[in-house]
């Protein structure tokens, strides 16, 4: 069976609840828009394969819940990501101000490799993109 992809990138969407992370992902993977807001529970993901210069690039995008109560779950995904999108709603100044908080949460998780020794060599996903 032919290999389905040559390289895999794991990316993560982070931001306040309701800023449009799921919509952004649906638009990117399926070119669809669903106007209803059904809060993500924990973490969900979608994939898309792109052909770039003859290389099959599979992009796996993890869509996290913006609600605070799921953060124990969502933080477990920060280290596995090779890139993180910090998403805000352009009509919500508050969601923009919270971007600093999301970024510092990521920094906090990845700055303490002793919490997860097997992940100690992971690059900082906020610095690599
Ligand atoms: N006008 C407008 N509304 C949007 C856009 N993108 C998303 N929305 C609306 O924003 C609401 C929330 O979108 P979601 O994508 O579910 O938000 P989310 O960030 O995934 O929310 P959580 O799963 O709770 O973290 C929905 O009611 C969408 O219809 C946009 O580009 N324009």
C-alpha end-to-end distance: 33 Å
Report the CATH superfamily: P-loop containing nucleotide triphosphate hydrolases
Under the CATH scheme, which architecture would be assigned?
3-Layer(aba) Sandwich
By helix and strand content, what is the structural category?
alpha/beta
Bound molecules: guanosine-5'-triphosphate
Oligomer: single chain
Using DSSP, what is the number of strands? Answer: 4
Strand arrangement within the widest β-sheet reads 2-3-1-4
Give the count of structural domains. 1
State the shape: globular
Report the top-level CATH class: Alpha Beta
Which parts are unreliable, with pLDDT below 50 for 5 consecutive residues or more?
117-121
Largest sheet, if any? 4 strands, mixed
What is the residue-averaged pLDDT? 89
Strand content: 15-25%
**Whole-number radius of gyration?**
15 Å
Order of helices and strands: EHEEHEHHH
